[in-house]
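Fig. S4 source data, part A: sequence.
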Amino acid sequence: MGFFKKILKYAIPYKGYALLNIFFNVLYAFFSALSMIAFIPLLEVLFQNTKKTIIKPEYSEFNSLKSYIEEWLSFQVNYQLSKDVGTTLIYVVSLVIILFLLKNLFNYLALFFITYLRNGVLKDIRNALFDKIINLPVAFFTEKKKGDLMARISADVIEVQVSFLSILELLIREPLTIIFTLVAMLTISSKLTLFVIIFIPISGFFISLIGKKLRKDSDLVQKEQGNFLSIIDETINGQKVIKTFGAGNLFISKFQNSTKRFFNYSNRLLHRANLAAPSSEFFGITVIGVLLWYGGQMVLIDQTIKGSTFLVFIGLAYNILTPAKAISKSVFSIRKGDAAAARIIELLEAENALKDKVDAIAKTSLTSEIEFKNVKFSYDNQIIIPDLNLIIKKGETVALVGQSGSGKTTIANLLARFYDVQSGSISLDGLELPKLKKTSLHEMIGIVTQDSILFNDSIKNNLIIGKKGATKEEVIQAAKAANAHDFIINMEDGYESNIGESGNKLSGGQKQRISIARAILKNPQILILDEATSSLDTKSEKLVQEALEFIMKGRTAIVIAHRLSTIQKANLIVVMQNGEIVEKGSHDQLLSKKEAYYNLVQLQQI
């Protein structure tokens, strides 16, 4: 229950609905017992078992309240019977109907108000999870499966939502129903009620034995659900590779193995959960059997209780079975909910090492330079950048070149503060990145990557992500600057055309030009181009390169390039090898040295 308690704070904004639910549950429990008691006068009329007296009783003291109520009911029934049996029967039946109507009305109202609580908690938890996902560092997602995260924000949240109803039933409605019913039973016979009181803790003990391992089983089910969701995600995204490499059977096998484990875990979980209701009902029927034997003697032999009253008592005893079963189900549901809550809390409490410092300030522009000073960075105990020193002046275009794994993209990621350095510092105009608010840093940076990251939306909505209030004219100008306007207006809905999942309705060159137009529209102070033309054909590369040259004018640009022909105009070319700078200078200067850069150029000309 430890994790589930942490989830309960999300119910605080909806406490008014919780109080209304409790209020109507109290009324439901009260009328649930009262509606059963109402059968006593009905049975009295049917069996003609009432005392033949029409003397109106007088109330004397509280201790004789029970006798007074019985005599008053007897008087009312006999008085009416003395006038008209049919009318009396109508009155009694009407009373029963009204009480059952009120009972079910209050039941509906209790469920009506708890609906706002349950759905409100579901909404707020999902919003909190999504906010957390948005604000967690990039490093977090390299270690987590997407399917598992999706399972936590969908299936686990629903499990917790269901448990909220269970906990209110466990704490309020069902216990009160049992208490009011027991009070009604005590007024009839304390001896018979003793059997029922003994039954409740015995039933609870056996049910708790059944549910001990439920939380563990539930956790296994939820984790496996996240696993096969990840396989589905990978399969959909990797369709081309799976088909061309003939890996379909491999993925089918992986998925079937996962669903088989899910099948086994789910069966074990449900078998254990399904024991709750029949177990509690069995214990209840056992007590009913004992009551029939013992109570039957009281009716037939001792004649200390009337047959009609005993029938109502049996009805009251059976009336306890429903809430008893509900409580057993609630216990199981809460155990499952606690397992789901643990996975949700793990994500909500995931540490964000890249939080802004308390005294962090907002910065809106780069006025002087970017400096990497003695920067060291490691990932998984592997040193990626051992010791980097680099200064990038405002307005300069700096190209980072080198073989794959030389640390080029890592430098860009560190500048965008997707990761923090282990030692050394990165500063903008002398202000170290941790002292700068991440939101303002990211407002200054625009990124165009090799894999164009587009969203399943219209072209316009993809373009205005970085500038929400952009006018139609600004959007068109950005698209023209990126050589994208012509193909956009030839699409069926123009700028309102949907581009599909990850922009799959567009060609590689078109997607890249949309990405560049998005960066142009944002108008960033610092531009990062990460292999922006490496995957394009010659024609597309030319169009994209023209767009890139336009966007780099007057900006501070860091260009990570594989094709060296695209960075010859850079102010500074930095050659990387194993995370270190081995050369730097202009294109002509580096060629004249005939060292690392010269060798890279020669390799591409072969």
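Fig. S4 source data, part B ends here. Strands lie at 369-379, 382-393, 397-401, 423-428, 431-432, 445-449, 526-530, 556-560, 572-577, 580-585.
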